[in-house]
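Section 4.2 – Deliverable D4.2 (structural model, holo form)

The reporting period included a commitment to supply a predicted holo structure for the target in complex with adenosine-5'-diphosphate. Inputs used:
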Amino acid sequence: MFRKILIANRGEVALRILRACRELGIATVAVHSTADATAMHVRLADESVCIGPPPPTESYLNPVAILAAAEITGAEAIHPGYGFLAENADFAQMVIEHGFAFIGPDPAHLRIMGDKIQAKRRARELGLPVVPGTEDAVGSEEEALEAAERIGYPLLIKAVAGGGGRGMTVVQGPSQLREAMRLARREAKLGFGDERVYLERYLERPRHIEIQVLGDRHGHLVHLGERDCTLQRRHQKVVEEAPSLVLSPDERAEIGERVVSALARLGYHNAGTVEFLWQDGRFYFIEMNTRLQVEHPVTELVTGIDIVREQIRIAAGERLGFAQKDVRVSGHAIEVRVTAEDPRTLTPSPGRVTAYHPPGGPGVRVDSALYAGYTVPPHYDSLIAKLVVHDVDRAMAIRRLERALAEFVIDGTATNLPLLRALFANREIREGRFDTRWLGQFLQNWRG
Ligand code: ADP
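Output (structure tokens):
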């Protein structure tokens, strides 16, 4: 097992990893920008290294600074968390070439899944059902028009290098396609430095269902069931739960087995999530995330498996200590993402937190790096806390969540807590009747 791990991230996920390390008896190195000198992950780590100024490109996205920090402190492994460099194959390669362990899959797998077209092609070859669309990036507008005839409208133009819910344009009919293609390519070039786009059928009322997997370096893979992340705003997840209301035990077992056998053929190891859209009883692969996900605690609560601990053990070459038959999903878990933003205008609201009181009690978990007196810096993601609850079934989990949301106090900065509270009072949410567009529509009428 490793003696010391460098955590190449910040915020709640840096703390999450730090906690796993501490429980395994592993020393931790935090890295931070000058904006994060007083951050919780820096305070709790055994050692810390300042790696640059506030802009991410000069600190958390700077491989050289991070490797230098690992070198100086004598860390043996690097955990990238999520976001920043977590899915950067070049970074993972550099980590390995410099003699550190990368706590994640092979760089080759990061590379395949980081390119959305290659990922879809590979998924299809591996026997997974994918969303109908073009096999390659579409070059000309003529080519796009032709392909669109085959795929049918409405359709989506997607940036090959897109991510984080950005880089998607819905096209309703052929008269819009040329203009939309021009715009989408320009935006892709500006946003991701890669103008390539492809076309995909637009599913109109899907649910987002993803399968969590864990695999060791000895060819042993298991799935930990699904998470339902259908409640999204601008294609970004806001609420995640497990199990999904729409899957029967047989459907769950079947999609899980298909994912496991596909990833086994790929030779995948460490944690990963295969994301699908689900509509009318059918699954459609959209992408794979080759890292720890924000919403992983939902799965941890229903399975009792510590995913970050397993990631570290796997990277150290240990075997998974359990088989598929040992994985049991019990009760129901729901996670809500608390963000520092005005829930009406959705504008970020960084600032000083004057009072902080997280909820507690049975079945309540809060993953957050906040404390009273902390100033939320403007340079990073607006996620400031994840509230996750677990209870015997969905109805009780919702009551527990409402109770916990009522206890939660974050003063000094605007948060989306009022929105989260309003959400669970809604009948369609309580009854589980929603699709990926539901929250956007709800927000149009919600005045807080
Ligand atoms: P990103 O990498 O930006 O997160 P994803 O491919 O994972 O992009 O998609 C994010 C979300 O966008 C999905 O959960 C879904 O709500 C929506 N989406 C993506 N592809 C489609 C599609 N073909 N039809 C309808 N919605 C889609």
